[in-house]
Amino acid sequence: MNWKEEYRRKISTTEKAIKDIHDGDCVVLGHAAAVPKLVPKAMADHCEEYNDVLIFHMTTLGDNPLLHPRCYGHFRHVSNFLSGNSRDAVNHLEGDFFPAFFKDVPEMIGDEIPCDVAVFQSTPPNSEGYCSLGVSCDYAIAAIRRARVVIIETNEMMPFVGGDNMIHVSQIDHIIPCAYRLPELHSDAPSEVELAIGRHCASLVTDGTTLQLGIGAIPNAVLTELGDKNDLGIHSEMFSDGVAELMRRGIINGSRKTMHKGKVVASFIMGSRELYDFVDGNDAIELYPVDYTNDPIVIARQYRMVSINSCLEVDLMGQVASETIGMRQYSGIGGQIDFVRGASMAREGKSIIAMPSTAAGGTISRIKPFLSPGAAVSTTRNDINYLVTEYGIARLKGRTLQHRAEDLIRIAHPDFRPMLIEEYERRFKCTYQTG
Ligand code: COA
């Protein structure tokens, strides 16, 4: 059958599409800024008709009606990355957290993560019947291949992004043509502390470096401090506004990348409307499934690969907690360890974890004698390379436990150094030498 005929035959409505979701099903939902809007709303409107439906999702930007309290008891959530709109539901046991490296999610879909129904967004089809998955590639293709029912909102306002980021009309069961704006993520202007951290990180970045930048305020601040560099490249999980700005200025051009020369490679894009306009039909940007972008072996093939990620706290041994505040699941590991390991294996590679020295308005030191009780270790003490705060850079790789403690105290907030020195002297049975 000609794809145009097939397209017409598959055009559906949300009301019709959700009739294919049954009690006990697991629905895998699109990610980040590409989270579908119409089908979740219809499911939430009809929540009383569903029992025991499991929803797998990661970050879902904007309002996710499936997480509203009125849906409690009808839908349960399983997620391996929490954000503002899902933390409460999951931490209040309307769902559960699923520890997993982001790179492993595509392979787990259909196995550890059941996938009866896939609900995603795409662009309308091109002249050959292919739809771009737009701003989120990550686990979409894996879910679409394995689901019993594939429901796609073909959104006219979804940017067309290339790479291994296409599905064909023949793979879809319900096509829901629509036009709505993608949810946006706007970052505040970086604070003085964040800019200081950005400057320290930038001092570790040389011309010709390929960068991965993680999620949160710090990676954004780093981008603002890279204005005097040349020929930077991007091989990352996420692509944000700051990257687009450096591409416009020619600082990021990918000319010295070992693989995908001249291209920015990522797995998803999240930011402002200007960013979505910038990436639309932009040949310099390619998205790939996350099991490719985040594969440490692929990452390690980039010469001068530098990963920059953030965390919540670090203990005096260099164990990094990036996803929990004590027992409370705050986010997830995402691609942090994939990039820490990949960058460490790369020729002239470096991995950087950067954080402000304090949290909660300066009342808590993020450098601690011990991680908070219940905290999960995201980057182990064996993996950590550079740790950066606004007070400087500590290179922990190859350092003994005693030297690590000394280096970390040096970059802790001065108000908390006496407490850390007390622990240091108790632990190592010697006087801490300042200066
Ligand atoms: N104890 C108590 N509260 C803490 C804390 C600590 N040790 N560390 C942070 N907090 C609080 C902050 O004060 C802030 O609270 P507020 O919102 O009330 O101001 C909140 O927790 C968030 O901290 P912040 O540092 O502002 O978070 P961020 O948005 O910059 O994100 C991470 C930082 C670590 C959560 C984020 O980078 C992450 O999830 N990393 C893991 C995943 C990853 O690195 N992926 C990489 C590939 S994309």
What are the salient characteristics of this protein?
alpha/beta, 6-stranded mixed beta sheet, Glutaconate Coenzyme A-transferase, globular, 7-stranded parallel beta sheet, 15 helices, 435 residues
Would you give an account of this structure?
The protein is of the alpha/beta class and 435 residues long. It folds into two domains: 176 residues, Glutaconate Coenzyme A-transferase (3-Layer(aba) Sandwich), CATH 3.40.1080.10; 237 residues, Acetyl-CoA hydrolase/transferase C-terminal domain (Glutaconate Coenzyme A-transferase, 3-Layer(aba) Sandwich). 26% of the residues lie in helices and 21% in strands. The protein contains 15 helices and 27 strands. The strands form eight sheets. Strands 4-3-2-1-5-7-10 form a seven-stranded parallel sheet. Strands 12-11-17-22-26-27 form a six-stranded mixed sheet, with helices on both faces. Strands 8-16-14 form a three-stranded parallel sheet, with no helix packed on it. α8 links the parallel β11 and β12. The longest helix is centred in the middle third of the chain and has 12 residues. The termini are far apart. The mean pLDDT is 96. Coenzyme A binds next to α8 and β17.
List the helices and strands and how they pair.
Elements: H1 3-10, H2 14-17, E1 26-29, H3 38-45, E2 53-57, E3 75-79, H4 87-91, E4 95-97, H5 105-108, E5 117-122, E6 130-132, H6 140-146, E7 149-155, E8 162-163, E9 166-168, E10 174-178, H7 192-203, E11 210-213, H8 217-224, E12 233-234, E13 238-239, H9 241-248, E14 264-266, E15 268-269, H10 273-279, E16 285-287, H11 290-293, H12 296-300, E17 305-310, E18 313-315, E19 320-321, E20 324-325, E21 328-329, H13 336-345, E22 350-354, E23 358-359, E24 364-365, E25 367-368, E26 386-389, E27 392-395, H14 401-410, H15 417-428
Parallel strand pairs: 1-2, 1-5, 2-3, 3-4, 5-7, 7-10, 8-16, 11-12, 11-17, 13-15, 14-16, 17-22, 18-25, 22-26
Antiparallel strand pairs: 6-9, 18-19, 20-21, 23-24, 26-27
